[in-house]
Amino acid sequence: MFRIVCFGPGPQFKGGIANYNTSLAKAFDRLPDTEVHIVSWIQQYPAIIPRDFIDRKSRKDQLQGTDIKVHYVTNYNNILSWQKTVKLIRSIEPNLVIFQWAIAIQGLPMGYIAKRLSKHPNIKVVFDLHFVIQKEGSRLDNSFTRMGIKHADAYVVHANQTATELHQLFPDRLFHVIEKDVATRENVINILKLYHPVYDMFSPDPAFDVEAVKKEMGLKKHVFLFFGFIRKYKGLHNAIAAFAKVAKTRNDVSLLIVGESFWNTLDQTKFVTRIKNNLFGVAKSIFLRRQDDERNYNPLALIETHQIQDAVYVMNDFVPNEEVHKYFQVSDNLLLFYLHATPSGVESIGYNFSLPMLATAVGHFPETIKDGYNGYLAKPGDIEDMASAMQKAIDRPIPRQHIQLTSRDMSWSNYSEAIMKLIMR
Asked: Which terminus of the chain faces fewer neighbouring Cβ atoms within 10 Å, N or C?
């Protein structure tokens, strides 16, 4: 029996990393002769962060039909829980522990846990890296990242950029990138370059009445979708500005904005929330560059500024997993006009619905989105070019079968098998 621990947020949490960790665990569970555990956070971040991270809306049990065991044990704010996590994982006697790395601030507890597990001769420690250089820069980011991810036998990355950044972070280490049929090497640290798998937890509903729902939502013929947490790096402000240019030239387009404002999930009238906001503000002023503080980021105000209210539908809330499909099924193109990017869970969901992608040519997007084939690329920061990409998507629509061909090999099964081959070599 090959025992695997997937360390990261469990299915009770919101967001892409929780979905990712759960989907990966399910993929490992489907492999023969495996025993899979999710070891999860109770609290992922410092207690002063003013945000609710728990998914309180989704109802479906994502682990139904599996033998996966979930352990909610790790509290960022309690170092005793870090040691408890180490003891728990050791008691499972895993062959593989794979950590989901997605934010630098978790470097303290994850580094503590990984360091102690890496000393065990029978445990392979792998970090699945969703980034190396943080999107929102902090003075401590690189230090936290080095601390968090250095105790690894191997790494998994989803973009060439991430592998390059890993070299930059640890310039004295010898790395070897494995892609496709490239063999591993001894006496170096292997980096397995894979893809972001297509989510199997979201799928189209064949009985869904697209036209009826579009009419109910007041959507027009051509629908552009922005989906996911509203964060500054995702460039919603640019997407709105670009859409406004298109909407001024034609009256058959709609912009569908679906997602929760990242820093507005708590009741702002509560005393505890006000205390958290004040403490968090002080911490950000010390550690975060001023231009990266997005607490007052409010791109939705631009809808009125550009006077496009009649062409925009906004669902400014967290979407339960059971309702995700309807927003993708009523849409024609997915907007990914990011300022900078690491592999995107929203992009992965888009593939599952065969939705063409309109993205800026930043990060990994030029690796996955081929201009004119499965989407259109725009110049970063160029509103005119973004509007042009949207217009091209209308005039020269991308065939849906191109998206299906792009993603046909990007399954969780292939992904989990590739990681097992890396460990077993």
From this structure: N
The secondary element (H helix, E strand) that includes residue 155 is strand 154-157
Q: How far apart are CA 334 and CA 236, in angstroms?
A: 12
One-letter amino acid at 75 equals N
Question: Which of 341, 347, 393 minimizes the C-alpha distance to 224?
Answer: 393
- Identify the helix (H) or strand (E) that includes residue 272: helix 271-287
- Indicate if the alpha-carbon torsion angle 220, 221, 226, 227 is positive or negative: positive
The CB-based long-range contact list for 242-248 (8 Å cut-off, 24+ gap) reads: 242/337, 242/378, 242/383, 242/384, 242/386, 242/387, 242/389, 242/390, 243/308, 243/311, 243/312, 243/387, 243/390, 244/302, 244/306, 244/308, 245/383, 245/384, 245/387, 246/387, 246/390, 246/391, 247/308, 247/311
Q: Where are the domains of the chain?
A: 2-197+410-424, 210-261+298-407
Contact 156, 129 (CB under 8 A): yes
List pLDDT tens digits, range 168-217. Answer: 999 999 999 998 766 677 789 999 999 889 887 888 999 999 999 999 99
Chain centroid, CA 425 distance in Å: 29
**What are the residues whose beta carbons fall under 8 Å from the beta carbon of 24, sequence distance 6 or more?**
6, 98, 100, 128, 197, 412, 415, 416
How far apart are alpha carbons 312 and 257 in whole angstroms?
7
Per-residue model confidence as pLDDT tens digits over 290-339: 445 566 789 999 999 999 999 999 999 999 999 999 999 999 999 999 99
Q: Which CATH superfamily is domain 2-197+410-424 in?
A: Glycogen Phosphorylase B; (3.40.50.2000)
What whole-number distance in Å separates Cα of residue 15 and Cα of residue 53?
8
pTM of the entire structure?
0.86
Classified by CATH at the fold level, domain 210-261+298-407 comes out as: Rossmann fold (3.40.50)
SS3 at position 270: coil
Helix axes 412-424 and 16-30, enclosed angle (nearest 10)? 70
210-261+298-407 shares the fold of 2-197+410-424: yes
Q: How far apart are CA 374 and CA 203, in angstroms?
A: 19
Cβ contacts of 11 within 8 Å, gap of 6 or more: 18, 22, 38, 55, 61, 62, 63, 70
- Please give the distance of CA 318 from its chain centroid, rounded to a whole number: 15
Distances (CA, A) of 107 to 115, 249, 271: 11, 49, 30
